[in-house]
Design goal:
514 residues; four-stranded antiparallel beta sheet; 8 helices; Endonuclease - Pi-scei, Chain A, domain 1; elongated
Length: 514
């Protein structure tokens, strides 16, 4: 093979000499027909000779390279064109074949458009008319709706106007009756002082009192027993069996063998009082009973039945117990249920006691009264046997333990009727005067106070009263065995008065049920 190299080299030299000679001979002709001959193979090889050597702006190497790139691109384009020509011819024939189909589709489209145009025109007109009708119907509906709103507003306003008129008439009648009651009270006081002068009008006064006792204003002139507890025949579960509540005494042990009866409250039951019957137990509608784990007023118990005036007892009873609850039933075989005692709120909770004292203080002295400067002491406010009340405005005294329901006793502005008596055997009963937790009136500050006052206490019976006015006057020896007595206006057992007890119910329920 090496022996052929000289021959191959000589051949290549002659080919190069031939190409150069050919190119040199044809150079002028190539320059004259450059666009037609620039892509000939020999011309592409000798393209660096084509530029004029006297023109310094043209680099032969760049010229040859550019020409080579141009010719390669033309060759590639020609090759692709040759290759795709059959494909494009076939595609052109297919397009020609689809022309009849396109013409047919266009013809069908034009025919469908010609057929649907009248229908669309008809439906368009119908829709326009329907839209106009619907718009008018909507306008009429909204006008009718607005008119009905106005009618409803007029009707509502008329109802409220009627209610306001009724309430105004009722208030006017109530005001007149309150004035009559006030006049009757004044006349009663005058009868006490001027009996021999006023005796002719006594029948008239008694007649008016009898008439008012049958109205809704009877509570203004008689007992307020509807705020208190159960009928006298109600059975209470005690440690030695079931006993009537009217036979319960302070110190009795209840059915759990732990709780003890601290005190017994007996209240006159007014004929106008509202009570209910739960499993045969007569109970005030506002007294709290345990119902499905929640403390509710008796009237809201699911078994509560309204009690007519004919079934009302003469007296109602309530207990205070160390556990604040007691179990009751109406008779043998009846299901028992649990109720709260008079105190209701759990003991030994300073925050509850303070909240309660603040509530009572605000009710008695006004919501803007400032309770902070005063030392409020929680408790019922009991009186010892040495405490006196006044039977008349002349200053006739009677020991508090001798007071009976129905007695008239001294009050701030005259006399008030006793409608309930409470007896207690707590260990903090003073021998005379009030214990540390009685509410009393301070004339200088003109407000009610409940301070902690240190008094020597002894074990024994304590007493409290429930009066129509919610207050009464007490007297007590200033010193043991002293002939000098102090006088003090105090709150009764209800603290706020029987007529306002209902204002404390939301607080009590919120504490017990939370």
């Amino acid at each position: 093979m090496l022996e052929a190299l000289p021959l191959l080299a000589v051949t290549l030299v002659f080919i190069g000499i031939f190409a150069y000679s050919y190119a040199t001979i044809q150079l002028e002709e190539i320059r004259a027909n450059w666009d037609a001959r620039r892509c000939d193979p020999l011309v592409m090889a000798m393209a660096h000779m084509v530029p004029d050597k006297n023109d310094p702006t043209i680099d032969p190497s760049d010229f040859s390279s550019d020409n080579f790139s141009f010719c390669i691109g033309r060759i590639i384009d020609s090759s692709i064109s040759i290759f795709l020509q059959p494909v494009m011819a076939l595609f052109s024939q297919q397009m020609e074949a689809t022309k009849p189909i396109n013409n047919s589709m266009n013809y069908l489209r034009n025919m469908a458009s010609s057929l649907m145009a009248p229908l669309l025109s008809i439906f368009g007109n119908l829709w326009d008319k329907f839209s106009v009708i619907l718009y008018q119907a909507g306008r009429i509906f909204f006008k009718l709706f607005s008119a009905m709103d106005r009618v409803f507003g007029i009707a509502t306003a008329s109802v409220f106007a009627g209610m306001s008129m009724y309430k105004a008439i009722q208030n006017s009648i109530g005001f007149v009756i309150q004035v009559i009651i006030a006049i009757l009270a004044i006349l009663c006081v005058l009868v006490v002082f001027l009996y021999f002068v006023m005796w002719p009008v006594i029948p008239v006064i008694l007649t008016m009192i009898g008439i008012l006792s049958t109205t809704v204003y009877a509570a203004n002139i008689s007992g307020m027993g509807e705020s208190f507890c159960v009928g006298p025949n109600t059975l209470v579960k005690c440690g030695d069996g079931w006993k009537k509540v009217s036979e319960i005494e302070s110190g009795d042990v209840l059915g759990d063998k732990i709780s003890v009866v601290e005190g017994v409250l007996k209240v006159e039951c007014d004929p106008s009082a509202e009570c209910v019957s739960i499993r045969g137990v007569i109970i005030s509608k506002t007294h709290l009973v345990l119902c499905d784990g929640e403390w509710l007023p008796a009237e809201k118990h699911y078994e509560a039945l309204p009690l007519g005036a004919a079934g009302m007892p003469d007296f109602l009873y309530c207990l205070n117990t160390t556990s604040r609850t007691w179990e009751v039933k109406s008779g043998e075989g009846e299901d028992a249920f649990i109720i709260r005692d008079w105190e209701e709120l759990p003991g030994e909770h300073e925050e509850v006691d303070f909240a309660w004292e603040t509530l009572i203080y605000k009710l008695l002295n006004g919501k803007d009264a400032d309770v902070k400067p005063l030392r409020q002491a929680a408790g019922r406010g009991l009186f010892g046997k040495g405490t006196y009340v006044y039977k008349d405005t002349l200053g006739t005294k009677i020991p508090i333990h001798q007071v009976r329901i129905g007695d008239m006793i001294g009050d701030e502005k005259g006399l008030t009727r006793v409608i309930g008596i409470y007896k207690d055997t707590s260990s903090d009963i003073p021998q005379s005067g009030p214990n540390e937790s009685v509410w009393y009136y301070m004339p200088i500050k003109k407000q009610w106070n409940h301070p902690a006052v240190s008094r020597k206490a002894r074990e024994g019976e304590g007493y409290q009263l429930v009066t129509e006015s919610g207050t009464f006057m007490v007297g007590y020896p200033l010193q043991p065995n002293s002939v000098k007595h102090g006088r003090m206006l105090v709150r009764d057992f209800t603290e706020v008065g029987a007529a306002r007890i209902h204002e404390t119910y939301p607080f009590t329920q919120s504490v017990l049920n939370n």
